[in-house]
Design brief:
Elements (H helix, E strand, L loop, with lengths): L3 H37 L3 H26 L2 H35 L1
Helix pairs in contact: 1-2
Length: about 110
């Protein structure tokens, strides 16, 4: 059975990468390039649109590169190890809780 906490940790890492990728695409690449085209090369609104298009293309290329570069087998092993570690912790806590309940019943 899949542990939701392990899944949420992996999902949060993915969301963080997506956030950083989109921010870098727009604020570091797209907007400065669009402003350069719009004002320095006098392309006006068309320059801004080209800058945003470049940001989208950058985001798509880097996103595909990250997906291709990722060792998905390794990621699965990490999640499986995390799930097994949390399962052992859960069993130990359940055992300790049962022992505590037995001690309370004896009183």
């Amino acid at each position: 059975m899949l542990n939701l906490r392990s899944l949420s940790i992996s999902l949060m890492n993915l969301l963080i990468y997506m956030y950083l990728l989109s921010r870098s695409a727009y604020y570091i690449v797209g907007i400065p390039f669009g402003l350069y085209l719009a004002f320095n090369l006098d392309m006006k609104l068309l320059g801004l649109w080209i800058g945003l298009t470049v940001a989208l293309v950058y985001c798509a290329i880097v996103g595909v590169w990250l997906c291709v570069r990722t060792d998905w087998g390794d990621e699965v092993r990490k999640v499986q190890a995390r799930v097994e570690r949390e399962r052992r912790i859960g069993k130990r806590l359940a055992s300790e809780l049962q022992q505590a309940e037995e001690r309370v019943e004896c009183l």
